[in-house]
Write a structure and sequence with these properties.
Blueprint (H helix, E strand, L loop, with lengths): L3 H7 L20 H5 L1 H12 L25 H12 L11 H15 L8
Length: about 120
């Protein structure tokens, strides 16, 4: 009998052409991002101007994945985050979105606010 992890892997789509032909596609988890869904939606709209449903982010997504949106580079994105949320995340080496959402959640808890926007 196949284990549940083997059964799950059988459901993954197989690439049909290109250099990875025959390889299975597996998306990274979204469990962490889903924990901070409201924060993630607000962040994506405020920083990148994209509406919920117009993007795919996972627990492994980073700021680098959005370089070029509104012609922004990573430095521009960091400035926008600092301006909008008053949060400096320059110490995050990979700009992981899940970690940014955690920090925004902590900031909101510390401030006693439901939104992270600076006044």
């Amino acid at each position: 009998m196949a284990s549940s992890s083997e059964q799950m892997s059988d459901d993954r789509p197989v690439l049909r052409k290109g250099p990875f032909k025959g390889k299975r596609v597996e998306f990274a988890s979204t469990a962490g991002v889903e924990t901070f869904e409201d924060i993630a939606e607000e962040f994506m709209l405020n920083i990148f101007g994209v509406e919920p449903g117009d993007y795919l982010i996972t627990d492994l997504s980073s700021l680098c994945d959005f370089v070029g949106v509104d012609d922004m580079e990573v430095g521009d994105i960091l400035v926008r985050i600092r301006d909008v949320y008053g949060l400096d995340i320059a110490d995050l080496p990979n700009g992981n979105l899940l970690e940014i959402f955690r920090r925004l959640h902590e900031q909101q808890a510390d401030d006693g606010t439901s939104g992270g926007l600076t006044q």
